[in-house]
Amino acid sequence: MSPITYTATIIAVVVVLFVWNRLPVVVVAMATATALWATGVLTIDQALGGFGDPAVIFIASLFIVSAGLDVTGVTAWAGQLLIRGAGEESRTRLLLLTMSMVALLTALISVNGAVAALLPVVVVIAVRLKRNSAQLLLPLVFSAHAGSKLALTGSPVNVLVSDAGSDAGVGGFGFFEFALVGLPLLAGTMAIIILFGKRLLPERNGATMPADFSRHAKTLVEQYGLASGVYQMRVRASSPFIGKPASSIELAAYPELQLVAVHEGETASPLRRAVIAEGDHLLLRGDAESAAAFAVDSHLAFSESAAPGQGEGTLFNRSSGLAEVVIPPRSGLIGQNVFPGMVTESGDLIVLAVQRAGSEVAATNATRDAGGIVLQAGDTMLLQGTWKALDLRLKDPDVLVVNSPELVRRQAVPMGPGARQAVAILVAMVLLLATGITPPAIAGLLAAGAVVLSGIMSVEQSYRAIDWTTVVLVGAMMPLSTAMVETGAAKLMAEYLVSLVGDAGPIALLAGLFVLTAIMGQLISNTATALIVIPIGVAAAATMGVSPRPVLMSTAVAAAAAFLTPIATPTNLMVMGPGGYAFGDYWKLGLPLLLWFFVVAVFIVPMIWRF
Questions:
Q1: Does the keyword Protein biosynthesis apply (predicted)?
Q2: Which residues pair with 262 in a beta bridge?
Q3: What one-character DSSP code corresponds to residue 379?
Q4: What are 320's strand-pairing partners?
Q5: ∠ at Cα 67 (320, 578), nearest 5°?
Q6: 213: CB partners within 8 A, 6+ apart
Q7: Model pTM score
Q8: Under CATH, to which class is 227-302 assigned?
Q9: Alpha helices in 21-133, H assignment, sequence order
Q10: In contact, 319 and 266? CB cutoff 8 Å
């Protein structure tokens, strides 16, 4: 068989396997690259070249940047803004706000960057509002496709058609000239999704949907009886405790009060210095009147970070968090004594309370003087400390963590530690992408490197942040585009179609080019598709004696209509796992959108850019 026949056969088999959906998509993708080499269509370097493609590097780096925004609570903050703006009940407002945001961001940093940045935000919204992620994620991606036509920087295809216009002697397209067609595309996309999306999209979630931890702090403090009667007091310069050890704090005159911990400065870390200094904080539990009297007598000030007595805000905030742990069977802690207010062996966590069989062991019977509580298998402890300490210390095999502090912080602490650095890194990456100072892959690598170097994430965390399924899938499928170009299969198909409709007038030419571009765009990169179709369209326009500008813009619109398959674009693949989508879910909503893009490309474009 000829290379063209081999390529066509491989494409047909790949599509069947994806539709069948019984084999992992990564296996199918790797088999595709292997088959292209085994049949001699591509060399080994070409068959594996996708893994070194700048687009693959860019996608991988975007996962790290996105995770950095997630870890620092920026995505939780954005999710809260979206929820506040849309309301918890209105599906329409939520979709409109989400689709508008992703479209505007896409215009600046391309489809891949915008979707990667907002994907975790939408997942958080789905969890918090108890909505199915499948109802939100494809609208996010498809709106990004429409938003790619709002500005020149929205897509590499825009740059290609603008350069082609300049080369053809009719001038390129202005930075915002694409918005003349992008706004109708976006408006129609929003209308179709809002009117028909609920029926056309599945009601399901991804297999790895996170739990909702937005009210985690309130749940814990209520369960352990700390919802009220907890006070944080700052040591003033005139306090008699300054210069004295923590053990000197005497509460005999205040029998209703219990000293839980002494925090060092503004941190949530237990005091490590030998003596107390101005600015340190005392954490107390007990009666409100006794707390007020103690504060006055000892020259202490109630902390302004939370309302006095409110355990949720006092114990759980940007600097400190709570974690619940269980003592498992055969734990080395079984038989050891603990008591509320005890500092753990590591020196940076505090035991706030202990429960046995779901009931708290009374603090009055579990003090240091009374010998504390002898731990048994199945006991639960509530620990408090800085978020960093919780992350580091709770990997101890002697305890089982009920909920990961990292996951809790991501959702429940908007704009947490490192949030400003994460936002600054995102803004810098956006500027690099918008101005084109560096290639996208370099901008992504610089941003990912900055996330690690700034301490937002460790190297190990950045490895885990990358969705390797998506990266491998994109890298393994890219050689299919190379094969289409190298064998001449794509060009042969394009030339045949143009010859078929070329004599029927310019409208028929636009229709034919749209169908060709859209079909190829479901299987190979839209950038590769545009590179194949653009010169043919320009030549056809010259033969007919019409301006190539509407032909070029129509091609750009068709290239963005990659709705029917998950392999059409990297962003379609990004949401496949979190949305729990199957191969067949894409075309149900994608087909009406494709028809709208067809109407815009064939009938509206010529009204704006005349033949």
A1: no
A2: 282
A3: -
A4: 386
A5: 115
A6: 403, 407, 408, 410, 411, 412
A7: 0.69
A8: alpha beta
A9: 25-38, 44-47, 54-71, 74-86, 91-128
A10: yes
| Alpha carbon 227 to its chain's center | 32
Report strand pairing: 373-374 vs 359-360.
unpaired
C-alpha span between 518 and 17 (Å, rounded) = 21
CATH number corresponding to 320-402: 3.30.70
Terminal Cα-to-Cα distance of the chain (whole angstroms): 43
CA-CA distance, 218 to 285, in Å (whole number)? 17
Tokens of 560: 């963005």
Q: What separation in angstroms does the CA of 454 have from each of 74, 319, 421, 438, 447?
A: 16, 17, 7, 21, 10
Q: Are 517 and 530 in contact (CB under 8 A)?
A: yes
Tokens 């974690």 appear where? 323
Tokens of 70: 């997630």
**Residues in Cβ contact with 426 at an 8 Å cutoff, skipping those fewer than 6 apart:** 65, 69, 74, 117, 447
CA trace torsion 58, 64, 65, 69 (10° rounding): 160
265 class by beta-carbon count within 10 Å (0-12 exposed, 13-18 middle, 19+ buried): middle
> 261-316: per-residue pLDDT in tens?
888 887 767 888 889 998 888 888 888 888 889 988 899 988 765 556 565 667 77
| Alpha-carbon gap, residue 382 to 394, rounded angstroms | 12
Q: What is the 3-state secondary structure (H, E, C) of 440-456?
A: HHHHHHHHHHHHHHCCC
Which of 610, 593, 611 lies closest to 184 in space, CA to CA? 593
Q: Please name the amino acid found at residue 504.
A: A
- Rounded Cα distance between 224 and 355, Å, is 8
User: How far is it, in rounded angstroms, from Cα 522 to Cα 216?
Assistant: 43
Closest CA to 232 of 207, 196, 262, 270: 262
Phi, psi of 325 (to 5 degrees): -125, 150
Q: What is the DSSP letter of 247?
A: G
